[in-house]
Each structure stands twice: as C-alpha cells, then as structure tokens.
Amino acid sequence: MAAPASATMKAFAGDWVVNKGLSDDLDPMLKLQGIAWLVRKAITTQTVTLHVKQYEKDSVDTLETGMTGAAGLKLATEIRPLDWEFRERANPAFGTINEKTRYIQEAEIEDAFLREGWCPGEDLMECWGENQQRGWTGNQVWGFAMVKGERKHVRKFVVAKGEKVVKVSLVYDFVRKL
User: What is the reported pTM?
Assistant: First the structure.
C-alpha cells in the first residue's frame, strides 16, 4: 500500500513490509559484507516487516525498529538515536557495526545514487556504519519516493569493501500507523 502523506521521516512510526517485487536483489551486498551463503538465503527469502516506534530520549529523536519475518519470527531490533554520534551495535548476521544516524536534506548528500529520486522537500535519514572486522563500510539514506506512481518508503544502500562497491534499494509498503 502507498505511504500516506502524513508519514514522513520525522513521523515514521508504523508497520512497513518489504516489497520484494520493487526492491533490488540484496545478495550481492550481503556477499560483499561477508555474510555466509546460508544466512544470505535466509535473509533474502524472508518477507521482512518493520515495526517502527519513534520517540525522544535524552532530548534526541530516536527510532526503534523491530523486524519480524515469516509467521512473526522476531529477527532483530535496532535503536537509532538521530544525533550523528557513533555507537557500537552487535548483530548476529552482520557482526559488530560502529554506526551513526541523522536527519539530512537531499542537497547535503554527496553520492548521486543516494541523493536522487526522493520526494521533493522531504526530510531524509542517513545511517553510516562500518564493520572493521569484515572491512566494509555502508551508507544508507531513507526517505520517501514515488515508485510506479505510488509514494513508498525507500532505503538506498551503498556498501564498499576495498575497491568493490554495491548499490541497492529496498522499497517498503505501508501497513499501518502506530
């Protein structure tokens, strides 16, 4: 379902389900990140639903995202304060990631792939992280874009390891507002 106009990156709480038909294949990105074949297959065959809460903690906007797969299987929870301060987060599949998150405007984004295609004038969210053990960096920009005539939540990823770079987009359908 299309995202309502009331859903913005600053008013994002709700449930969102990945639309595999509109999203890119994640396997090349996951492979570059050192994810084992069996785990990659488990990730790419799941239909993931995001359960997003948004609140203020210590005067900082914070996103808390619970992820579930088939039959409500709980996959992970991410907590992202939007203050552009580095925090370390352990993830069973991706390892230890040192990451930071913030609101950003389109004009501030350097990479053309990450910058282009958003709904005009809307706030975006940038997440930057690195995994020193596996040697990769990842930059993500989240926002809303028109996809096949409908407003959708989109997450664009640029992952680099040495000279190799993979760029993918995930598209999410709106389920319900929380």
Answer: 0.92
